[in-house]
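#struct-help
A.M.: can someone run this one for me? Single chain, 101 residues.
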Amino acid sequence: MMIKRLLVIFLSLFIIYVGVKIRKRERVDFIAGYNVIFKPRNEKKLAKRVGVLVMLFGIETIVFITLSLFLSNLVGFYGTLVVLNILFIGIFIIVDQLSNF
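D.P.: on it. Structure tokens below:
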């Protein structure tokens, strides 16, 4: 059981690292539909927002793994946060498309 938690923590740290790289690289060409469905108007701002959100997702994962040691039934709440993170990425794309320079 402890090995699983450690693996999830290492995965979470990797997710945080990916978020930092997205934010610093200032590119979001990994998003599905890039240059086909949408072309970012302000790719640097979108990358910063998505990078911060990915880092927060990694932090949320570490926090929930730690809290699961002491509390039970957090799976539903964590699942809700995962869905909210995905929705926020969609909102960030919509805001980017509606923004004017």
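A.M.: thanks! The chain has three helices and no strands.
D.P.: also worth noting: The radius of gyration is 16 Å.
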